[in-house]
Design goal:
Layout (H helix, E strand, L loop, with lengths): L1 H14 L8 E10 L2 E2 L8 E8 L2 E13 L2 E14 L2 E4 L2 E8 L2 E4 L2 E8 L2 E4 L2 E2 L2 E4 L2 E4 L2 E2 L2 E4 L2 E4 L2 E2 L2 E4 L2 E4 L2 E8 L2 E4 L3 E7 L2 E52 L2 E2 L2 E4 L3 E9 L4 E8 L3 E10 L5 E14 L2 E13 L12 E14 L2 E15 L13 E2 L5 E15 L1
């Protein structure tokens, strides 16, 4: 209702035909190039229903149809259909359809459709559709759709859809959808969705969804961010990407690296069946976390384990349960960063914990271990309780249960 009241004066103006008072009424106008026309120097004072121009025409108002070989210029108001080879320009209000090979320009507002090979420009409010091969620019508000091969720009308020091959820029509010091959930018608040192959940027509050093949950036969002890189000041909802960075998040962050200011950051030190000494970093949101694991197995043959995984934490008061999946690359101690990816040790772990005090918890858990190695290599842990062994001398597969006990710090 508030938005309707905002646009009500302009809409009332658009519904009123071009003012006849003060105009010279001529049903048909023919022009070669201003002022070489049937109107002579009186063109800006003429109101006509049909305007035909060889190169270009200039009249005061049109209520009907206008055709120009290169350009059409209407000083005050236009209603109907306007066809221009290059440019259509209306200084006041346009109600209808503008079609041009180059650009459509309205200094006031338009209720209708603008279609151009290059750019559509509206100085105030638009209630219709803008189609351009290059750019759509609206200095006030838009309530429908902008379609451009290059850039859509709205300086005030958008309530609909922006589609661009390059970038969508909205200086104020957004309620609807921004879809661009390059970037979507909203400096104020947004309500709806931003979808881009490159980046989505919202400088205020976004209530909806950001989807990007590149990066999503928002001062604050409520909904979801899905992209290669997600960055936010505050968020409420889901962050899904390769890298997630947020100061405050109420919801899960899922990715290879998630840095959450109010999330978790813990260091686990454990003794386990597969490796005597293990140190793990757990970081991420309050529920979903990533873990980086360093392990040492002194039994012959000695091995170094480098692991990475993702998990989920359930918590009630001082008790918590972590469920995670971790994959380890098992290396020789003297060359821990050389060689191929095999052998591998994969684990599905269930770890319970009790927080004794702030920054200190006791933890213990069970795990299912799967070993995959070339050349029939066998894994020697603390005990030999293998449930499955394919016995292959090529790709060896072992499955056995495991355990871990230790402490969690920070």
């Amino acid at each position: 209702m508030a938005r309707f009241r905002r646009f009500l004066p302009a809409l009332m103006l658009a519904l009123v035909p071009a003012l006849a008072l003060g105009y010279i009424e001529r049903p048909v106008t023919v022009s070669f190039f201003p002022p070489l026309s049937t109107n002579g120097a009186q063109g800006p004072e003429v109101r006509t229903r049909f305007s035909f121009s060889v190169i270009g025409g200039y009249v005061g108002a049109v209520d009907g149809f206008e055709l120009g070989g290169v350009f059409n210029i209407v000083r005050d108001g236009f209603r109907g259909l306007e066809l221009g080879g290059a440019v259509n320009a209306v200084g006041g209000v346009a109600r209808g359809v503008q079609l041009a090979g180059g650009a459509n320009i309205v200094g006031g507002m338009i209720v209708g459709v603008q279609a151009a090979g290059g750019a559509n420009v509206v100085g105030g409010m638009m209630d219709g559709v803008q189609l351009a091969g290059g750019a759509n620019i609206n200095g006030g508000g838009l309530r429908t759709a902008q379609l451009a091969g290059g850039v859509n720009f709205v300086g005030g308020y958008v309530e609909a859809v922006q589609l661009a091959g390059g970038a969508n820029i909205c200086g104020g509010d957004l309620r609807g959808l921004q879809l661009a091959g390059g970037a979507n930018i909203t400096s104020g608040n947004g309500s709806g969705a931003q979808i881009a192959g490159g980046a989505n940027i919202c400088g205020g509050l976004l209530s909806g969804c950001q989807l990007a093949g590149g990066a999503n950036i928002a001062e604050e969002f409520s909904g979801a961010q899905v992209g290669t890189v997600n960055i936010a000041g505050r968020g409420k909802g889901l962050m899904l990407g390769v890298v997630n960075v947020v100061d405050e998040l109420d919801g899960p962050a899922i990715g290879l690296v998630s840095i959450v200011g109010n999330g978790m950051f813990h260091v686990d030190a454990t003794f386990a069946d597969h490796a005597v000494a293990n140190v793990a970093l757990k970081f991420g949101s309050k529920t979903v976390y990533n873990t980086v694991v360093f392990g040492w197995k002194p039994q012959e043959p000695a091995r170094v384990l480098l692991g990475y995984g993702i998990g989920y934490r359930m918590r009630r008061d001082r008790l918590f349960l972590d469920v995670d999946a971790v994959g380890h690359s098992v290396r020789e101690p003297d060359e821990p960063f050389e060689g191929d990816n095999l052998p591998l040790l994969a684990q599905l772990r269930f770890t319970g914990g009790w927080q004794v005090m702030e920054g200190f918890s006791l933890i213990a858990g069970i795990a299912g271990n799967v070993w995959v190695a070339d050349e029939g290599e066998y894994y020697h842990g603390l005990y030999d309780l293998v449930l499955y062994d394919n016995g292959s001398q090529n790709t060896r597969v072992l499955i056995w249960p495991g355990f871990s006990v230790g402490v969690e710090l920070l």
